[in-house]
Amino acid sequence: MQLFPSTIPAASPAGGASGIATATRHQLSNGIVVLIQRNPSNPTVRVRGEVRVGAINEPATHAGLAVFTGAALIRGTPNRTFQQISAETEERGCSVSSGGGQHSSGFSGKALVEDLPLVLEVLADIVINPTFPPDEIARLRGQFLMSLRENERDTRSQASRAARALLYPEGHPYSRLSSGTIETVQTITRDDLVAFHQQYHPAATTIAVVGDVEPAAVIAELERTFGVWESAATPPVQELPPVPPLSGMQRRDVDVPGKVQSDVIWSVHGLARSDPDYYPAMMGNMILGRLGMGGRLGENVRENQGMAYYVYSGLEADLGAGPWAAVAGISPDNVERAIQAILHEIEQFKQEGPTDEELADAKAYLTGSLVLGLETNDGIAGTLLAIERYGLGLDYIDRYPDIINGLSHEDIVTVARKYLSTENCVVVVAGPL
Questions:
Q1: CB 96 within 8 A of CB 106
Q2: Which domains does the chain have, with CATH numbers?
Q3: I need a surface site. Which of 15, 76, 326, 393 has the fewest CB within 10 A?
Q4: Is 42 helix (H, G, I), strand (E, B) or coil?
């Protein structure tokens, strides 16, 4: 099977921003969507895939199940042990991995082009036929529990966990961390992993392949490896329950004794990725707490006032409205003053909006970073998955600069005033009380 061409054109736009619009989109016979981008400038090939099953599909009593299942896929199949998977790929200079997340479970592989059939064969085996060997599950559980115990002493992790519990009603998938807790991970059984894996479905799967490959040959290999995957179940449904609006400022202090730093989180409900407000919100978040050394928050709270070791903002926008938050590492003696400084900057941003210079810098950064992200096969593959996940269309990269450059000062102010409340919000402090 010829996966790569015998000759390479003298000049080709195949990779990067100018080439994604030419990517091949194909649906396998079992419903898997395949996206293939030829990139003759790189001798390696990258595979990235995702199944739209994640922590939002697990019961609250089994928090961490999606992450556990995703990580356990690679631990053995009827055809290969975990050790054989590692040996078979590493001796050819290849790599494969798998994992679970909030909204999806992913898998990936990297190889020289001639070894792509092997990587696809191994990935299909672990995704379709995991056996979850008990001894490997025990080792993996031990690793997870060790990480969770470390997180119990981490002020930022504890602040994030408490903030989510205040932002979302009990039982909502966003009310907890996808990693679960010590209590929930301890109770997850092998049968739970098997049952959760049964939600994996070819019709909920997307695979992106990027490298110096011929699309038709890659499709044939994918039909040979992933095309045999069949499921009698219906594709999983991903729905989120409604979230009541916040009423007043909800404050929680989490005692993490023995620490010399506290973490502060201010947060409100954000918006879904499909919301028309997404782009002005994304740019507003960039200016507020990401650009340069942490945007407005970094310049005024950290640099000018010296109130924080670090401060930044984050916007989680996906299937549902995740948190829009500001996070800061603070000396315990300065916590209350730092909270007031953060709230002041948010109010100022709502009233004034960005300066002309901030707006220009944010536009330049967002358009430039997109191009930089498409300089590697992995970056292109990740972008193709996102385009498919959110239904953006393969011409999205060509349209993106106009979307960003078309945003105005008024767009940013309108969204900031709509979402960024300092009255109806959550404030959490984790550290030594």
A1: no
A2: 20-225 (3.30.830.10), 249-431 (3.30.830.10)
A3: 393
A4: coil
d(CA 81, CA 339) in angstroms, rounded, equals 52
Q: 86 CB contacts (<8 Å, ≥6 apart)?
A: none
**pTM score > 0.90 for this model?**
yes
Query: pLDDT tens for residues 165-191?
Result: 999 999 999 999 999 999 999 999 999
Nearest to 206 by CA among 50, 430, 13, 370: 50
What is the residue type of 423? E
N residues, the chain? 433
What pairing do the DSSP bridges indicate for beta strands 24-27 and 33-38? Answer: antiparallel
Q: How far is CA 77 from CA 86, 129, 191, 229, 395, in A?
A: 13, 6, 16, 14, 39
Rounded Cα distance between 380 and 48, Å, is 10
Q: Which two tokens stand for residue 12?
A: 């080709």
Written as six digits, the tokens of 107 are 């898998």
pLDDT tens column, 311-361: 999 999 999 999 999 999 999 999 999 999 999 999 999 999 999 999 999
User: Would you report the helix, strand and coil content of the chain in percent, each value rounded to 5?
Assistant: 45, 20, 35
217 CB burial (10 A radius; 0-12, 13-18, 19+):
middle
Contact 218, 3 (CB under 8 A): yes
SS3 102: coil
Sequence-distant (6+) residues with CB within 8 A of 135 are: none
